[in-house]
Each structure stands twice: as C-alpha cells, then as structure tokens.
Amino acid sequence: MKAAHFFTAAALTLGTASLGTAGAQTLVPFSDPKLPFKVSLPQGWLGADFADGTSGVSLVSAKAPPATVIRLLFMPKEGKAVDLNTEFGKFESGLKSSGVTIKQLSSKDARYGGVGGTEREYSVTHPQGQLRIRVWYGNGARNLYSFQLTDSPARYAAANALFTKVLATLRFQ
Prior knowledge:
10 strands; alpha+beta; Protein Transport Mog1p, Chain A
C-alpha cells in the first residue's frame, strides 16, 4: 500500500486544541457504495482529499492546524498474498524517506469488524515537532486495509479513545 503518510505534519502542526473527551464525541453512521465497509464517524469532522491516490475515507477534526487525522483506507488484493510485516515496512520506509525519525512504541494482533490484522503505534519526530500515529493493517478476504490515526502527543490520548470507538463500529461488506 502506498506510503504517502507525511501529509500529516502540515495538518497537525503542534497545538493543544481540545478534541473533547472521546465519550462526548457523537458518532454518525457512514456508508458509501464504493467502500467495502460501513462505519460510524465523528460528527462535524471534515472529509479530506490528500490527492495521494488512495481509496477510502480521510477525515480531519478541523479546517486548520492543529487537527486530528483519521484515515480508513483499502486496496484490492487482486488475488495476491499479503504479508502485513512487509506492509508495515513500506509504511515505515515511506515515513523515513520524508526525513522524519520514527520509533515503534507497540505492536499487537488486533481484529476489527471480524478482520484480523496487526496494529502498531509510533512516535514520529519531524522538523515542526512530534506526532503519534496508530496504524492497523487488516488482511481481509478481498482487500488490504490500512486504518490510521495521527495527532500530536498532547491530544493523542483523547484522539486514540475516539479512534477506538470508531473502529468498534466497523462492519465489512
């Protein structure tokens, strides 16, 4: 899967604007016939087009920085076998090639909507500061999924709780 992930630095220039508590965020059902899943998304968030050729849904919490970014992406496997460690390697190489330093904080098996995969968290240092990223790669029957959360360390705990709520609503089709 394409590793065009450093778009986040511009969207996330460090700040401490509040997301509110995850429990206070209202989730609204979202579906699109072009997507292989249904999900509930945070009300009031904005769709984002990062013009990176990916398929899926990308959202930002605000028009201007600082903003939390959620991406729910997929790529048809077209009958090919997928190695999630290879996909994470591509993701990490893509980040490093943009001049950032990354540190993996955790890795675990995770299942969302009945699809198994691997989830990792990273700390990323870039010229404007730091980011925290949570990425889940899921190996579905027909698609490879890459679901991502990116935010500043100051807001990450609240954003992470909200992302967990979003992922709990996933239903693959």
